[in-house]
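Lab notebook, design round three. We kept the backbone fixed and only want residue identities now. Task for the bench partner: fill in a sequence for the structure below.
Input C-alpha cells:
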C-alpha cells in the first residue's frame, strides 16, 4: 500500500504544470532504466522473467532442431481430409489479422489526444462513483476527484453506496465531512448491482456530461478536464474512454503483467479505434458520456436483458454500444489517465476475464443488429471492421481450441515449442511499444503475460461463449480484486 499512498499523495499535491504524463513525479510504472533492472526487480520477479526467456529460447531451439518434424507435420496436415481447408482458412485469417494490425498501426501514428479546453469552455460535469465493499479505497477515489483541476462550480460529485456490507458507507461519510457541499452521497437500500447504482446517479446528475469512475481508482489532476474536452471540440462525440493503468502493479506478479497489457489495450488499440470514432468499450474505471446520449438510451440500458435474464454485467460495454448505435462518435483520451486496482491472484483474474468475455459475446450480438445498417452519416467502415475483428475471435474460438488440443495430443513437443517461438515473435511488438512509451525493464512482462495467458487462460473465451447467459459479477467478495 505504500507505493499506492505515495502515488495518491502526488496526485493530491501536484499542480497540472508539475505533473506531465511522462514526468518522474507522475510515475505510473516506476520507470527504471535498463541498468537499474536487476536492482529494482525483486528476486521472485527476476526468476519469473528469467524463466520466461529460458522457455522462449528453449522453444526456439527445439523448433530449429525439429524443423524436419515440422515439415512432415505440415505435409501430413495438408494431405488429410480437413488439412487443406483448414490451411486456407488459417491463411485467410492470418492475412486479415496482419492487415488489421498494420491498419491499426497506421491509425495509432495518426492519433493525437484532444488538448484540454479552457475553464470557460468546459461544460458542467457530474461525476458518479458507484461503490460496493470498497472500504477506504472509496475515500482515496473521492479525494483524487475533488482535487482535480476542474472548476468547482462546474463539478457535481456523486457517490452511491450499493448496499455495501463493510465500512464503505463510513468512508463516504468521512469524505462528505471533508469535502462538504462539493460531495453528495447516497445509499442504496440493498445491493442491486453496479448498473442500478449508476442509474441512480444518472437520474440525480445535473451536468451536461456524465463521468463514471470506479471506486477503487485514482485519477490524475488533469484527467477530468482532458476526459471532458472532446465533447466541446467534437459536437458528434457521445462518449470518451479514459486511459487505464494499473495502480497495484508493484504488489504482485499479475498486476505487473496486466499493466503492460493495459497499455497495449488502451494506448495502442483504443488510439486506433478512436481515429475511427468507434471505441468499442468505455471502461468503468473512467469514462465520460454526453448527457443527451445517455438519456436517449437509459430506459433500454437499465432494462437490458439477455436470453430472458436481466443484464447485471457489462454495463460499460452496453452503454458504449447504445451510444454508437445513435450514430455518435466514441473517442479515447490518452491524456486522461486513471489508475485502478486489478486482481492479484489467479481466481480473481479469470473471473474478471469471464465477466468481460460474456459481455463481449452479448454486445457483439447486439452490435450485429445495427452495424451493417445506416446508423451513422459518416463512414461506417471502421466500426464494421472492428466488429468483424471481434466477431472472428468469437467464431473461431472453438475451431482453434479443437485444433490446439489435437496438436497437443499428436505432437506435444512441436506444439509447445512452436507456441513459445510465436510468443517471442508476436509479443516483441508489445515489448517495444511499452519500452518506447515507458520503461524497457517493465516491458519484458509482456512476454510473461503472453505465456501465462496462452497456457492458463486459453479457455476463457470458449467458456464465456458457452456460459454467456449466466449472470453474476463473479469477483465481488474476492479480496484479491482490491
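Proposed sequence:
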Amino acid at each position: 500500500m505504500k507505493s499506492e499512498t505515495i502515488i495518491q499523495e502526488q496526485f493530491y499535491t501536484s499542480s497540472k504544470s508539475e505533473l506531465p504524463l511522462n514526468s518522474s513525479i507522475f510515475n505510473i510504472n516506476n520507470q527504471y532504466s535498463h541498468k537499474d533492472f536487476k536492482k529494482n526487480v525483486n528476486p521472485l520477479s527476476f526468476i519469473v522473467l528469467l524463466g520466461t526467456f529460458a522457455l522462449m529460447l528453449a522453444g526456439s531451439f527445439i523448433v530449429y532442431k525439429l524443423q524436419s518434424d515440422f515439415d512432415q507435420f505440415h505435409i501430413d496436415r495438408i494431405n488429410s481430409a480437413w488439412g487443406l481447408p483448414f490451411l486456407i482458412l488459417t491463411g485467410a485469417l492470418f492475412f486479415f489479422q496482419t492487415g488489421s494490425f498494420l491498419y491499426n498501426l497506421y491509425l495509432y501514428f495518426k492519433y493525437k489526444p484532444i488538448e484540454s479546453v479552457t475553464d470557460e469552455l468546459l461544460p458542467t460535469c457530474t461525476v458518479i462513483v458507484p461503490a460496493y465493499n470498497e472500504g477506504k479505497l472509496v475515500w482515496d477515489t473521492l479525494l483524487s476527484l475533488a482535487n482535480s483541476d476542474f472548476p468547482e462550480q462546474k463539478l457535481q460529485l456523486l457517490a452511491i453506496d450499493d448496499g455495501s456490507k463493510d465500512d464503505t458507507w463510513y468512508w463516504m461519510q468521512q469524505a462528505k465531512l471533508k469535502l462538504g457541499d462539493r460531495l453528495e452521497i447516497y445509499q442504496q437500500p440493498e445491493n442491486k448491482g453496479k448498473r442500478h447504482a449508476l442509474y441512480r446517479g444518472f437520474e440525480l446528475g445535473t451536468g451536461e456530461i456524465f463521468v463514471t469512475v470506479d471506486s477503487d481508482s485514482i485519477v490524475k489532476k488533469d484527467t477530468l478536464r482532458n476526459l471532458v474536452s472532446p465533447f466541446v471540440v467534437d459536437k458528434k462525440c457521445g462518449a470518451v474512454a479514459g486511459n487505464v493503468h494499473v495502480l497495484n502493479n508493484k504488489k504482485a506478479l499479475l498486476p505487473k503483467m496486466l499493466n503492460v497489457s493495459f497499455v497495449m489495450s488502451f494506448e495502442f488499440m483504443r488510439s486506433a479505434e478512436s481515429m475511427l470514432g468507434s471505441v468499442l468499450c468505455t471502461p468503468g474505471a473512467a469514462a465520460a458520456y454526453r448527457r443527451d446520449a445517455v438519456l436517449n438510451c437509459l430506459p433500454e440500458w437499465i432494462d437490458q436483458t439477455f436470453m430472458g435474464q436481466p443484464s447485471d454485467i457489462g454495463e460499460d460495454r452496453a452503454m458504449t454500444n447504445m451510444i454508437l448505435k445513435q450514430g455518435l462518435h466514441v473517442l479515447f483520451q490518452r491524456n486522461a489517465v486513471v489508475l485502478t486496482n486489478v486482481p492479484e491472484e489467479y481466481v480473481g483474474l479469470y473471473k474478471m476475464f469471464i465477466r468481460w468475455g460474456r459481455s463481449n459475446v452479448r454486445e457483439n450480438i447486439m452490435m450485429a443488429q445495427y452495424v451493417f445498417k445506416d446508423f451513422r452519416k459518416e463512414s461506417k467502415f471502421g466500426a464494421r471492421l472492428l466488429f468483424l475483428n471481434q466477431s472472428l475471435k468469437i467464431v473461431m474460438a472453438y475451431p482453434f481450441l479443437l485444433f490446439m488440443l489435437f496438436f497437443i495430443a499428436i505432437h506435444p513437443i512441436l506444439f509447445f515449442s512452436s507456441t513459445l517461438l510465436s510468443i517471442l515473435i508476436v509479443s516483441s511488438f508489445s515489448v517495444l511499444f511499452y519500452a518506447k512509451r515507458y520503461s524497457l525493464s517493465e516491458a519484458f512482462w509482456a512476454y510473461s503475460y503472453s505465456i501465462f495467458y496462452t497456457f492458463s487462460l486459453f479457455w476463457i473465451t470458449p467458456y464465456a461463449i458457452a456460459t454467456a447467459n449466466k449472470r453474476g459479477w463473479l469477483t465481488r467478495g474476492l479480496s484479491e480484486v482490491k
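Keep this in mind before ordering anything: The two ends are 11 Å apart (CA to CA).
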